[in-house]
Amino acid sequence: MESKTSILITCLIFATAFQLLLPVSEASGCGSTTTSDLKIGYYKDKCAKAESIVKSTVSYHVKNNPGLGAGLIRLFFHDCFVRGCDASVLLDPTPENNQTEKQAIPNFPSLRGFEVIDAAKAELEKECKGTVSCADIIALAARDATYLLGNISYEIPTGRLDGRVTNSTEALLNLPPPFFNLTELVASFARKGLSTAEMVALSGSHSIGRSHCSSFTSRLYPTIDPTMDPKFGASLRKLCPDPQNTTTDGVVPQDFVTPGKLDIQYYKNVESLTALFFSDWSLLTSTETRNQVETYTKEPEKFNQDFINAMVKMGNIEVLTGSPGEVRGPTCRFVN
Ligand code: HEM
Question: Is residue 190 part of a domain?
Answer without folding.
Answer: yes
